[in-house]
């Protein structure tokens, strides 16, 4: 059952954000992953790359191909992906299980090299990304349907996008970065009233932010 404020009552009786609908895989992603803080560098690299692949597509399309992407890109171990060569690009362009977009494939390989550089500078990808977590003054007072739909980017995602591009990353526009921040828990964009919002807020309250090496 849909509500005017962007929430739905699912078949299990729980009230959730509107976007997963009743699709089991999307519900599982919404409930168990989206918005929960992540510090694992492999998952962070995977997500920002997959958000790049999503450009022009739906996240559901990418989610349903995620295991294929993992197999194709060495589990998104960026030290391995950075060593991919033209033979690997040719292999990936023939892989029907992923999105066969040469620019996005080349971008992922490039970004793997940039990720290695970032780890050398900051100690981890997690330390870098969490250093850009938006402060309370940068967040809406209330996350409702209209706010979520009207804000596909944020001041923080614009800053991070610009900084990543300066560092040589590609396919990391402000919208892509904001979707990454939503998914990886740098912000809690579960709508007010969603059954997961309080859980995620509690996780974020207990969460120990990673620190930049030497800081």
UniProtKB/TrEMBL annotation:
<dbReference type="InterPro" id="IPR011257">
    <property type="entry name" value="DNA_glycosylase"/>
</dbReference>
<feature type="binding site">
    <location>
        <position position="194"/>
    </location>
    <ligand>
        <name>Zn(2+)</name>
    </ligand>
</feature>
<dbReference type="GO" id="GO:0046872">
    <property type="term" value="F:metal ion binding"/>
</dbReference>
<dbReference type="InterPro" id="IPR005019">
    <property type="entry name" value="Adenine_glyco"/>
</dbReference>
<dbReference type="InterPro" id="IPR052891">
    <property type="entry name" value="DNA-3mA_glycosylase"/>
</dbReference>
<feature type="binding site">
    <location>
        <position position="17"/>
    </location>
    <ligand>
        <name>Zn(2+)</name>
    </ligand>
</feature>
<keyword id="KW-0862">Zinc</keyword>
<dbReference type="GO" id="GO:0008725">
    <property type="term" value="F:DNA-3-methyladenine glycosylase activity"/>
</dbReference>
<keyword id="KW-0479">Metal-binding</keyword>
<dbReference type="GO" id="GO:0006284">
    <property type="term" value="P:base-excision repair"/>
</dbReference>
<feature type="binding site">
    <location>
        <position position="30"/>
    </location>
    <ligand>
        <name>Zn(2+)</name>
    </ligand>
</feature>
<dbReference type="Pfam" id="PF03352">
    <property type="entry name" value="Adenine_glyco"/>
</dbReference>
<protein>
    <submittedName>
        <fullName>3-methyladenine DNA glycosylase</fullName>
    </submittedName>
</protein>
<feature type="binding site">
    <location>
        <position position="190"/>
    </location>
    <ligand>
        <name>Zn(2+)</name>
    </ligand>
</feature>
